[in-house]
Amino acid sequence: MKVTVQPSSITGTITAAAGKSSMQRACAAALLAKGTSQIYNPGISNDDLAALDVIQKLGAKITALTDDYIEITSTGVNPFSNEVSCGESGLGIRMFTPITALSDKSLTITGKGSLTTRPMHFFDEILPLLGVQVSSNNGRLPLQIQGPLKPAEIEVDGSLSSQFLTGLLMAYGAGVEEDVAIKVKDLKSKPYIDLTLQVMKDFGVDVSHNNYESFHFKKENTGYKPTNYTVEGDWSGAAFLLVAGAVAGNILVKGLDAFSTQADKAILQALMDCGCVLSVREKEIEVGPAPLKPFHFNATDCPDLFPPLVALAAFCDGISVIEGVSRLQHKESDRGITLQEEFRTLGITIELQEDLMIIKGGTGVNGATVHSHHDHRIAMACAVAALKAHGPVVIEEASAINKSYPNFYKHLQKLGATVEVQEANEITVTTVDVTD
C-alpha cells in the first residue's frame, strides 16, 4: 500500500482505538481463567488478532463475537496444535511463551516479519531454571519448548524489555504450589508492568512488589477467575492523534483514561512542555496548535513515544532532546536509525549521541517520499508530519499500520485530512466532513 498525505488542517472529534497492550493481556488472562470471560471494546489490530489466534490454539474457544465484545471460554492451557504463531507481535511472543510452557506438550513457537530477527536469548537462559526444555535458532525464532513450567525463585534481567517479565508474571499467576518471588534487576518500562499487574488483578490474581525489584506470589492469591473486562483506549496510537492536533488543528480525542497505567500516557507531559493548547479531562483530551517550544523528554520507560515525539519536535522552534535511544534497537525496525533517515528525507536533522536523540525543529518539513520500513509507528509519524509539510508526503509500505492501528488513515480522514490510498493499482482520495 502507498499512501499520500496532503498538507491539511484538521478539526473535529475522534474516539481512540482500543489499546492492544490491554487487549493482548486480557486475552492471555481469559485463557488462563477457567470459565467464560467477556472482553468489551475489543481491538482489531493484527497484534490483537494474533493474540486471539494464539489463545484458541492453546485451548480457548471464542463462544461469541461482536463489534462490542468477545466471549472467551477456557479450561486453561490445553493446546490442540503443535505450533503457535504470534504473528509480528513482540509482546505476544514474550508474553505467550511462558504461558504456553505451562503445558507439558512439546510445542513450537513461531512468528513472522521482523519478529524472526528479534533476540530471544532470555528464554534460553530462564526457562530451563523453571523446568522447561527449550531450544532456539541461536537465540532467534522458532522456539521449541517442553514444559510444564514450574514457578520457582529466580532473578531476571529487565533491561532489554519488560515484556519478558510480563510473560513470567502471568504464567506464575496461574498458580504456585508455595509462596515464591521473582527478583528483577534494571527493569525498564515500569508502567507496562503496572498494566500487567492491573489486568492480573482484574482477573483475580493479586501480586505485590518491592519497588519493582521483586514480585511476590502467595498461593492463596493466584489462579485466574473469569471476568468481564473492558479494553481501554490506546494511548500509544492516540499519541499520534494528539500530536496531529498540536501541529495541525483543534481536535477532541475521546476514550482515553487520564488515570491509565499505560506508559504512553506520558505524551501529555511532552505536549504540556511544548506549549500547545491542551485540556485534559477524565475520558477525553482536547488539543490544538500554538507556537511550539522545544522540549526535553525521557522516553526510557515509554520508547514507543519516540516516533510521535519526533513528529512533534519537527515543528518546535529549536532543538528538542529525547532520552532512551538504546530502547529502540529491537523494535519493528531500528527506530533510532529509521527515524533519522526518514525525517532527513523530510528535511529534519536528527543526531544520535549515545542515549540521546537530538531533533532540530522549526526548519520546515518538506514534501517527499518516505518508507515505513514495515514499522507501524514510522508510518504514522510520517503521516502526522505530512499534515503541515510544504508539499505532499508519500508513504511507501504504508499498510504497516495494520499491526496496531488499522483505522489510523481513516481517522485522519474523518478529522478532515486529505489522504490518498493506493492499493492494488487503485487510488482512493478521501476527505470526510467532520460533522459525520
In the CATH hierarchy, the architecture of the largest domain is: Alpha-beta prism
Would you tell me the structural class of the helices and strands? Answer: alpha+beta
Provide the β-strand percentage band: 15-25%
Mean pLDDT: 94
What key phrases describe this protein's structure?
single chain, 436 residues, alpha+beta, UDP-n-acetylglucosamine1-carboxyvinyl-transferase, Chain, 2 domains, five-stranded mixed β-sheet, 12 helices, globular, disordered C terminus
Describe the structure.
With 436 residues, the chain is an alpha+beta fold. Helix content is 29%, strand content 25%. The protein contains twelve helices and 25 strands.
Short description:
This protein has 436 residues and is of the alpha+beta class.
Topology readout:
Elements: E1 2-5, E2 12-15, H1 20-32, E3 35-40, H2 46-57, E4 61-65, E5 69-74, E6 83-85, H3 90-100, E7 106-110, H4 121-126, E8 133-135, E9 143-146, E10 154-157, H5 162-172, E11 180-185, H6 190-202, E12 208-209, E13 214-217, E14 228-230, H7 235-248, E15 251-254, H8 267-274, E16 277-280, E17 284-288, E18 296-298, H9 306-313, E19 319-323, H10 335-345, E20 349-353, E21 356-360, E22 368-371, H11 376-386, E23 393-396, H12 408-414, E24 419-423, E25 426-430
Parallel strand pairs: 2-15, 3-14, 6-7, 10-11, 18-19, 22-23
Antiparallel strand pairs: 1-23, 1-24, 3-5, 4-5, 7-9, 8-9, 11-13, 12-13, 15-17, 16-17, 19-21, 20-21, 24-25
Helix pairs in contact: 1-2, 1-3, 1-6, 3-5, 5-6, 7-9, 7-11, 9-11
